[in-house]
Specification:
Blueprint (H helix, E strand, L loop, with lengths): L21 H9 L7 H12 L5 H70 L2 H14 L4 H13 L3 H15 L3 H13 L3 H12 L3 H17 L3 H14 L4 H13 L3 H14 L4 H13 L3 H14 L4 H13 L3 H14 L4 H13 L3 H14 L4 H13 L3 H26 L1 H4 L4 H13 L3 H14 L4 H13 L3 H16 L3
Helix pairs in contact: 3-4, 3-5, 4-5, 5-6, 5-7, 6-7, 7-8, 7-9, 8-9, 9-10, 9-11, 10-11, 11-12, 12-13, 13-14, 13-15, 14-15, 15-16, 15-17, 16-17, 17-18, 18-19, 19-20, 20-22, 22-23, 24-25
């Protein structure tokens, strides 16, 4: 046995690789490739035509491969971009849908949250705040069922009865009669003073209790106060406060009752209680400041009016109270600036004109004072206090004839005031359904230039007696003079009908 180490298996002159078998070479040369796959023929032909010894062929092959590679890369990039764009578009659509759904949900939540806040403010008696919130709700959804009902309720409770009726009419046109509408119409009728016509139906509902009972008591007492039926209103309010000594509606209405009875100190106490209990009750605070100014308690009024100025700086009545408080405190220059700004915006505001006349007197400007008082009397001829001040300043500066004319008018107004007071405290309490009493009070108010108050009493007389001839006649004249021929013709026909068919 010989060792193979260091010894080549081939002769020295032979190639490094073993030779192919001759039979294999011969078969390759003599027999063509009969591969069954056509790609084999292509590879074979390509191999036979492209020789490693031909550089140009190699270069062409490389360029072709490069072109194919670039084309494939571009195609793949295009497909990738297209898929990316489709994916991005889908994502954007999804984001948009989610954002839209989120916005709708947020808007819905915000709307119902505002409605809840309106109910809370109304429950506390914060009517001005409720009106502000409702304005936002009405702007978003003017035909929403709850928006319409709450708007009618707030208008009624804040004393805007015609506006309340307009809201209820709009509700009826959209939704027809339902339980909520029937109740609110009954409450509106009661608040107008037509309490006896709805007493049975309201009493029946009152027994159910809950928030509905509270609404009924508020409207019922408001209607009694509008007809100066103080005894009945006082009984109901006392019962209400016995049940709930802290109810803000009851406390506020009791203050109003005391004001009507000319018990200013009693009214102050109810308003103080309410403000101490609820410092944000602007309505009670405003009534308290008004009474403090009327009784010349400027120092006590100042912190309250400062609070109101911050919460409602644009309301003209608040600005007037601020000026009156400043006058009581002797800060005349500041009061003059407040009044001048107020009169720039409201040049026919009689109360502001009268206060401006006072400031002019204190600043020793009598001619300016006379001008301001003359304008105030022109715009509010029934205000006794303004006429007294006007007559005084006229007499002090040598205009005695004009002063005497004012004193004669004052005597007439004072007589009318005493007559109204006598009617309200006597016959009206005994006979609340006598149309003659309502008509007479309306005539006195009309003579005093209190047009809206007069019209209210005339309509009250007609609700009691729709055929009251004297009331139809005076309304005929009023509507003719104010350029309302249709209403004038209506009342003329009713007056003629009542004359032709006396009962």
């Amino acid at each position: 046995m010989h060792s193979d180490s260091g010894v080549s298996r081939y002769p020295p002159d032979s190639p490094a690789t073993p030779p192919l078998q001759s039979t294999t070479l011969d078969n390759t040369k003599s027999q063509p490739c009969n591969s069954a796959h056509p790609l084999a023929n292509d590879i074979s032909s390509a191999t036979s035509t492209t020789s490693p010894s031909d550089p140009s062929s190699v270069q062409r092959t490389s360029e072709a491969d490069l072109r194919l590679s670039r084309h494939g890369l571009v195609k793949r990039l295009s497909l990738t971009r297209l898929r990316w764009r489709h994916r991005l578009f889908g994502q954007l659509v999804l984001i948009g849908l989610l954002a839209g759904a989120g916005w709708l949900a947020w808007s819905e939540w915000r709307f119902y949250r505002a409605l809840g806040q309106v109910r809370q403010e109304v429950s506390k008696g914060h009517y001005q705040s409720a009106i502000t919130l409702l304005d936002w709700c009405v702007h978003r959804r003017p035909s929403h069922r709850q928006v319409l009902l709450l708007s009618a309720q707030v208008a009624r409770q804040s004393g805007h009865l015609e506006t309340a009726e307009a809201w209820l009419d709009q509700y009826w046109q959209l939704y027809g009669d339902d339980e909520a509408l029937v109740l609110e119409r009954l409450l509106l009728q009661a608040a107008r003073g037509d309490v006896d016509a709805v007493t049975f139906r309201l009493r029946e509902r009152l027994q159910r209790g809950g928030m509905e009972a509270r609404l009924i008591k508020e409207a019922w007492i408001t209607g009694l106060l509008s007809r100066f039926r103080w005894g009945e209103a006082g009984v109901l309010l006392t019962q209400w406060l016995d049940e709930d000594p802290h109810d803000p509606w009851a406390l506020y209405l009791f203050g109003r009752l005391q004001e009507q009875r000319d018990d200013r100190e009693g009214a102050k106490e109810y308003y103080r209680r309410l403000v101490e209990q609820d410092p944000e009750h602007d309505e009670a605070r405003q009534r308290l400041v008004t009474l403090l100014v009327q009784t010349r308690h400027g120092e006590e009024a100042e912190p309250h009016i400062r609070f109101l100025i911050q919460s409602r700086p644009q309301q003209r009545e608040i600005r007037l109270l601020w000026a009156q408080t400043l006058i009581l405190l002797g800060r005349l220059e500041q009061a003059r600036a407040v009044l001048d700004a107020l009169l720039t915006e409201h040049p026919r505001y009689a109360a502001a004109l009268a206060e401006r006349g006072k400031v002019a007197l204190f600043l020793e400007q009598p001619q300016e004072a006379i001008q301001y008082f003359a304008q105030a009397v022109q715009y509010d001829p029934g205000d006794l206090a303004i006429r007294h001040q006007y007559a005084t300043v006229l007499a002090q500066h040598g205009r005695e004839t004009e002063a005497e004319q004012q004193r004669n008018l004052i005597k007439q107004l004072e007589a009318d005031g005493e007559r109204i007071k006598a009617l309200i405290e006597g016959p009206l309490q005994r006979e609340p359904h006598n149309p003659e009493i309502h008509h007479e009070i309306g005539m006195i108010a009309l003579r005093a230039g209190q047009i809206q108050e007069a019209i209210r009493w005339f309509h009250s007389a007609l609700r009691i007696d729709p055929h009251h001839v004297a009331t139809h006649r005076v309304l005929t004249v009023y509507y003719e003079e104010t350029g309302q021929p249709a209403l004038a013709a209506k009342h003329r026909a009713l007056a003629r009908q009542g004359t032709d068919n006396p009962r």
